[in-house]
Q: What sequence folds into this?
């Protein structure tokens, strides 16, 4: 494991156990820059909620992998094939998780956020289709 990946892993752990708890207090609200992904544990079956950066893209939503796809929430979504996203005060049932690249995903993000994602080297994103219930 290289120095960069080791540093990312340490930051991810601090965020998972400290910063995310604070972020969850504002995430998902109508004016919050953060959304909440609700997912079910692939091994435990427990329900989890994680703050993420989400923007609309086509018929769905796209989530930025700020720490890469080695995160638990992504693995849980892939295993379950679905999740819920709370964004700007609304809840979306999402299905068909698909990895996409920055060329496709980055235009969905506002200029400032897109710039930050480029600076920190975010190159993979998760595209989810919003389920249309009859």
A:
């Amino acid at each position: 494991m290289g120095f960069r990946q080791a540093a990312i892993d340490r930051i991810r752990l601090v965020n998972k156990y400290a910063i995310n708890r604070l972020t969850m207090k504002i995430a998902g609200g109508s004016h919050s820059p953060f959304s909440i992904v609700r997912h079910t544990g692939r091994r435990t079956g427990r329900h989890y909620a994680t703050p993420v950066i989400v923007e609309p893209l086509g018929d769905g939503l796209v989530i930025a992998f700020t720490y890469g796809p080695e995160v638990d929430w992504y693995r849980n979504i892939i295993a379950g094939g679905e999740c819920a996203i709370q964004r700007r005060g609304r809840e979306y049932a999402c299905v068909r998780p698909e990895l996409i690249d920055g060329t496709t995903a980055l235009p969905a993000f506002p200029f400032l956020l897109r710039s930050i994602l480029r600076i920190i080297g975010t190159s993979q994103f998760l595209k989810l289709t919003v389920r249309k219930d009859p």
About this structure: The two ends are 48 Å apart (CA to CA). The chain has one domain: 3-130. The chain has four helices and seven strands. Strands lie at 35-40, 47-52, 54-57, 60-64, 82-87, 90-101, 124-130.
